[in-house]
Amino acid sequence: MAGGVRRIKLGSQGLEVSAQGLGCMGMSAFYGAPKPDADMISLIHHAIDSGVTFLDTSDMYGPFTNEILLGKALKGGVREKVELATKFGIYFADKKMEVRGDPAYVRAAAEDSLKRLGVDSVDLYYQHRIDTTVPIEVTVGELKKLVEEGKVKYIGLSEASASTIRRAHAVHPITAVQLEWSLWSRDVEAEIVPTCRELGIGIVAYSPLGRGFFSSGAKFVEKLSQMILERNKLARKVAHELLLIS
């Protein structure tokens, strides 16, 4: 248990990961300008040395640049120390985003991700978003072939409904489902979480701190106190005005 980070079985298919993962998206996209590669590679290596070995990326982060960054960080024997997860399913063409799950795209996306990451296989390959124009059985059928070829070790889904998870799992065992789950976002507890537990599928929660809302410590308490204070001021003002009217 390097660095005191617990190891767990993710799902029931045999994948073992660190209980805490490192989501790498913000290093390259969505949260301000991309950060310097050297700084981010140092951060990744520090996380690994601390026992956080479950790394998460996607071909659409950047797009593509986050996988390239991870590829640089995994050189020099680092790949053997980590559990590597990436995703496919969000396709960019002519600056437009499209969700795809057709077999030809699935295979091409996997091959391209392997090249960018500089690896022979990924430990966990998620369908990032579900293509509703392609039966999930067809998409997972192609993923199953990638598993048989040794290019993908385990299959995952991201943001899938309970019924889609069941249909996918019937074609090939699904190891993990990634979803947003926090005190801020709990709708998944109605159907998706129970379905995953029933089928022995691991759950990977993203934004567990409410996209940063719950991680601001004292600032959160101060902000909450200020909100309550402002609400009370407004209530007193309304009460006073009603009194004057009466």
Describe this entry's structure for a reader.
This is Putative aldo-keto reductase 2. The chain has 246 residues and is of the alpha/beta class. It has 2 domains: 2-215, NADP-dependent oxidoreductase domain (TIM Barrel, Alpha-Beta Barrel); 217-246. It has 7 helices and 11 strands. It is globular and about 80 Å long.
Task: Please provide a brief summary of the model.
The protein has 246 residues and is of the alpha/beta class.
Q: What's the quaternary structure here? A: single chain
Instruction: Tell me the β content.
Output: 15-25%
Domain count: the total is 2
Structural class: alpha/beta
The coarse silhouette is: globular
CATH architecture designation of the largest domain: Alpha-Beta Barrel
Q: Low-confidence segments, ≥5 residues, pLDDT <50?
A: none
- H and E order: EEEHEHEEEHEHEHEHEH
- Could you say what the CATH topology of the largest domain is called? TIM Barrel
CATH level 1 name of the largest domain: Alpha Beta
The biggest beta sheet is recorded as:
7 strands, parallel
Protein name: Putative aldo-keto reductase 2
Keywords: NADP, Oxidoreductase
GO molecular function: oxidoreductase activity
Domain NADP-dependent oxidoreductase: 24-222
Topology at a glance:
Blueprint: E1 7-9, E2 16-18, E3 21-23, H1 37-49, E4 54-56, H2 65-73, E5 83-88, E6 90-93, E7 96-99, H3 103-117, E8 122-127, H4 136-148, E9 152-158, H5 162-171, E10 176-180, H6 192-199, E11 202-206, H7 218-245
Parallel strand pairs: 3-4, 4-5, 5-8, 8-9, 9-10, 10-11
Antiparallel strand pairs: 1-2, 6-7
Helix pairs in contact: 1-2, 3-4, 4-5, 5-6
InterPro entries: Aldo-Keto_reductase (IPR050791), NAD(P)_OxRdtase_dom_sf (IPR036812), NADP_OxRdtase_dom (IPR023210)
GO molecular function: oxidoreductase activity
Keywords: NADP, Oxidoreductase
